[in-house]
Amino acid sequence: MNCFRTYFFLVTLLFFCRLAISQSDSEKTSLLLKSADSLLSTNPKRAKSIANEALALSEKNKIDSLIYKSRFFRGVANVYMGLINEALEDFITNKKLAIKLNNQISLLESLNAIGNSYKEIGHYDLALLSYKEALVVCEKNNMSGKTYLMKSNIAIVYNLLHKPDSSNLICFDILKRYQIFKKSDNFFLSNLYSTIMSNYIDKNIKDSVEKYASLAIDIKLKIGDLVGYVGDLNNISQFYYNQGEYKKSEHYLRKAIDTPFDNLPLFADLKQQLAYSLIKLGRHEEANELFGEYILLLDSVHKIQTVEKLSEMEVKYETGKKEEELMRLSAQQEINTLKIRQSKILTLVSVFSVLVFLVIVVVLFQQNKKRKEANKLLQAQNNEILNQKKEITDSINYAKRIQLSILPPEKMVKRLLPDAFIYYKPKDVVSGDFYWVEEKNGLVMFAAVDCTGHGVPGAMMSVVGLNLLNRAVNEKELTKPSDILQYLDIGVTDTLRQNQIEGGVKDGMDLSLCTYNTSTKQLQYAGAFNNLWVVRKNFSSSHNLNSQTETLFEDGLLEIKADKFPIGSNTNGVADTYTNHTIQLQKGDCVYLYSDGYADQFGGPKGKKFKYNALKKTLISISHLSPAQQREELNKTYEQWRGNLEQVDDVLIIGVCV
Q1: Interacting residues of 248 by C-beta distance below 8 A, sequence separation 6+
Q2: What is the mean pLDDT of residues 566-586?
Q3: Euclidean distance between CA atoms 58 and 52, whole angstroms
Q4: pLDDT at 282 over 70
């Protein structure tokens, strides 16, 4: 009994000794985190180093709340330093910890940080998933203020994904609720109007662009957000420039230039854009003057940036010296305090040191035994994970073989379309984009299809699409493009059970589909969101434009517009009706079908999207080459533009020359 009491006393004493040490470590960790927080924006490298020190202490003492905070600060420091992938690792680990702690605020914080990071590096699909998960947390916990923020983030991502309808649906829902509850956050509202304006720019709806542009710029001017005001004016001017309304483009650019805002690089860009508009208006002398001003501004920007960098380095040096001195004094003070506390603790512990040592030996022996057992279990789990990973990789590679086997073989494409090329570049092992070629009753049908998503989900959708296209032609004997699209539309709806209340998958596909009579050179076309481009040396004397559905661009590119509703997602069970277009091709014409992957690729000197206008110019410039040479030039242009950046989506372009 006496032995038991002695043992209990020793264990209790050891517990309080550990508690005292743990409390001192906890206080030190809190001081470190406070210091890291103050340095995040000014000296992120130093902030990261301090956060690492705090993380080591908090992990040593197993204090989950401090572990979370240390890792979060390290992630934010990585964001400031441009190390987004490292930041993502911290935020994703923190998400798991927040779930373990059942801390909804921390979970929301982590999900939002994950979404922002994915958006920063162009992984918009993953950003969308994180924001949607964060929205569920907001709604579940009645966080109304954060709910609006997450919805606006989702709307912005839809805008970046060129899904203006989805983005506007969310934006107008937020506006409606703001009106009901009479919210008046003008900064938030102005950014919301700017997003809606951008969506209507994508949809090319002029009246709506002008309406929401007016609302956005009025509020930004009112609240003094001059940089945002100028940015919106610049977007509007670009819209009018692309519309060919160069006078209006000039008007908005001059308003932006006359605004007293503090951003010299943007001011230089505005001068350059105004020069381009004046060239289109035939005012070459004024344009030349503006180009001269633009060059002088670029020189000033370079000089200012050089001075700023030198000043920043000098400030960082002086700030670093002061911070190091303060940290040294603070650390010395902490060391003195810890020495006093540790002296008292060691005085108490020394009386029972031998007995405590024996207890520790027993505890360490038991822990070592458990550690060995845990290591064995961990090794077994690791082997299981490696086996599962191999099985998954093997399965995906086999799925690639299956997908390639069901695509039209190259010999078949060459036989049916001898003067054609297919530029096909999946983002992942398997692809959500696919091409289709078939022959029926002397007619050749071909299509470029972009399914929702990429990778495995997109590939599964491509199998559904290929199967339905083959059935439409071979079983239903359909050859008219609009009829095939209507059959495909209801087929996807039925296959994915989208007309049922529960269990349906809200996915679909965008595509352009043609039927070509090789004897008469007559081409029929129908499309869902994806337009058709025809390049001809001179359309002026041989083609009457239908202004509702066709646009003739410079250098002989005719654009035939697709219908603005996708394949699938018919919840009422009724198929959409698609427009059938007919065009008589001539020798030397080149017809192009495409998905959005090429135009949406980030790259170039500024890391921006390639965009459709650049793709049009590229196709016009290479249309005189052979199909093989055209494909080679497209690949060379794409790879040079992308550089070292990651491919963001599947890429598909089909070219058929007459």
Answers
A1: 237, 240
A2: 85
A3: 10
A4: yes
